[in-house]
Structures are given as structure tokens and as C-alpha cells.
Amino acid sequence: MADVLDMTLDELRAALAARLPEEAAFEGWTDAALDAAALALGVPPERARLAFADGAGQMIDAWFADVDRQMTAALPPETLAAMRIRERITALVWTRITLVAPHREALRRALAVLALPQNVLLGARLGWRAADVMWRLAGDTATGFTHYSKRLTLSAVYGTTVLAFLDDDSEDQADTRAFLDRRIDDVMKFEKLKAQLKPDPDRHFNVARFLGRLRYPTH
Description:
Layout: H1 2-5, H2 9-17, H3 20-27, H4 31-41, H5 45-51, H6 56-74, H7 77-81, H8 85-100, H9 104-114, H10 120-137, H11 144-166, H12 174-197, H13 207-215
């Protein structure tokens, strides 16, 4: 208990994040859930409330960050390196689903909180962060427009897959897995089409090349 009481607020948030969904399933993302998580961890509730002074959104943020950490641990670089890019993204999304699966009601309540007008930007930020973490783990090094478009696309794929999971009563979430595979198919087709439509710099007017040829004409 001494170690727990000696934690910094950041360390305490991380420790509580793993426990919070168990309580939020019954209490919602409320002070009551936070108090129960604190007592289970052996922390005075008032200190836990200090760690989450911003309320429900901050608690959900901490839980999703904990999911990021667990996903990263479950799929180390050496495991992902043996996969093709499609397999990496599928494995990362599916791992997130399996990590939140035991906390379906807490997740449902979390999404309801994030859907409130005052939390819409937070919800978008958390969706973007999840997609960014997954792409980085997958080895993506894209920059510029491609960097952003990949994350927007994956954020949408993950978000719709989560919604499918919440309504899935099939054994081992088989329907959700099938849904995810279809969405990944769509993404791969889109990326292939985008690559085909990408302008070829050698076939388009280039000012620098044109001026260079004026200065050093080819024969």
C-alpha cells in the first residue's frame, strides 16, 4: 500500500485506469466508480478524485491509453514484423477489440459520454490517437496528406468495428471479426486505387526541371 500511496498523479491515473472499466460497468463513468476503483487499489478516494479532477472524460482517456499500452505489449515489434501490412492492421484492431471485450458495458457507457456535445472533440482526439498508435506500431512512416488520410480512415474503421462489436451476440464475436475483415478489404482497395491515381512526377510539368533544361539544354 505504501508504494501505491507514493505514486505520482500520472502513475496513479495509469494504475486506476486498469480498474476503472470494471466499476464503470455498474456505476457509469462517475465519482462512485472512481471511488470504488480507488478503494480496490488501496488509495484514498479523495486522492483518486484529485488524479481525475476533470471527470468522466479524463477517466475514459486514461482507460483508452491503458488499452494502447496493453495492445503494444501484446503485439511487440518482432511479432508484427513477420506480418504483411494488412495482417498488422487487422491484428492491431482485433487486439483492441479483445482487450475491451470483457468491458462491453463500460465501453457502451464511455461512448455515450463521448457523444455528449461537450465531449465530441475529445472523442475525435481519442479515435485519432488510437489510429495513430496502430499505424506507428504497423511501421507506417507516411508524411503529409497520406499520414493524415491513413489515420482518418483507420479511425473510421475502428470506430465502426467497435459499434458492430457492441451489438454482436455471436460466438467469440465472429460477426465482428467478419465485419472487420470486410472493412479492411475496403481500406486495402482504397489504398490500391489511391496509389494508381497518384500523379507520376515524371509525367507532369515540373517548374524546377523546366528551368534546369532551359539553363542546361539536353541534346
